[in-house]
């Protein structure tokens, strides 16, 4: 397998992108980067340091020196051999758990609509490919971060099914939340992510749709592996 392969996985909130991306990275021996975790880490920094976050209506008229704030933020990933996952660090502190809270869920789409934030994180994400091939999941990976990715997958699933999956996950972690709240957050984030001005979530023209409403994790991974097989066949015959 080509170790410089770049696989972009985009899609709606709570579609299971990271589960598929991690499994693929493991099978293919590629790095996995969760770009959403980067936006979540910046959101955590903003909340902890009382950095103002404009709502969608205020975004245009809002002036704040985000570039200066971003200079104080260092985001990195470190492999945790205990669970086999790369975990996200904010200024040297492991924030993997904190960034999955409902509070972050509620703010992250606002923070990720800020132009300076996107510019900085896209630059870091692109730089990650200098270390070799990777699987990256997010919202704009196939459209903006890696428009020339070898393979682009666009994931979707019924919003109710996605909310139920996320609700189960949060309950298992002991988070006190109702299914209605989760559904509201999932649908609200979909709306903001697809309607923002700066690289909104949309399917790249050459992305392959993976609707996983009725698919198991194994079936989803098998679907993408088949696309990779087709890709390597076409590059062999080209
Ligand atoms: O994948 P996730 O749910 O952890 O992402 C959290 C938020 O970050 C999501 O609502 C939108 C934003 N995001 C983004 O704007 N661009 C990306 N490439 C990844 C995430």
Characterize the structure shown.
The protein is of the alpha/beta class. The two termini are 16 Å apart. It has a single domain, classed as P-loop containing nucleotide triphosphate hydrolases (Rossmann fold, 3-Layer(aba) Sandwich). A hairpin with a 4-residue loop joins strand 3 and strand 4. The chain has nine helices and eight strands. The protein has a five-stranded parallel sheet. The protein has a three-stranded antiparallel sheet with strand order 3-4-5, with helices on one face. It is globular. The structure holds 2'-deoxycytidine-5'-monophosphate. 2'-deoxycytidine-5'-monophosphate binds next to helix 2, helix 4 and helix 8.
Question: Topology of this protein?
Answer:
Elements: E1 6-11, H1 17-28, E2 31-34, H2 35-48, H3 66-70, E3 75-80, E4 85-90, E5 93-94, H4 102-111, H5 115-128, E6 134-138, H6 141-145, E7 151-156, H7 159-172, H8 179-195, E8 208-211, H9 217-237
Helix pairs in contact: 1-9, 2-4, 2-5, 4-8, 7-8
The structure holds 2'-deoxycytidine-5'-monophosphate (DC).
2'-deoxycytidine-5'-monophosphate binds at residues 13, 35-36, 39-40, 108-109, 112, 138-141, 189, 193.
The first-level CATH class is given as Alpha Beta
Work out the number of β strands. 8
What number is the mean pLDDT? 94
Residue runs with pLDDT of under 50 for 5 or more positions:
none
Shape: globular
At CATH level 2, the architecture is: 3-Layer(aba) Sandwich
Distance between the termini: 16 Å
The total count of helices amounts to: 9
Percentage of β-strand residues: 15-25%
**Which cofactors or ions or other ligands sit in this model?**
2'-deoxycytidine-5'-monophosphate
Rounded radius of gyration (Å): 17 Å
Quote the CATH topology.
Rossmann fold
Structural class assignment: alpha/beta
Spatial arrangement of strands, main beta sheet: 2-6-1-7-8
CATH superfamily: P-loop containing nucleotide triphosphate hydrolases
The biggest sheet amounts to:
5 strands, parallel
SSE string: EHEHHEEEHHEHEHHEH
Helix content: 40-55%
How many separate domains?
A: 1
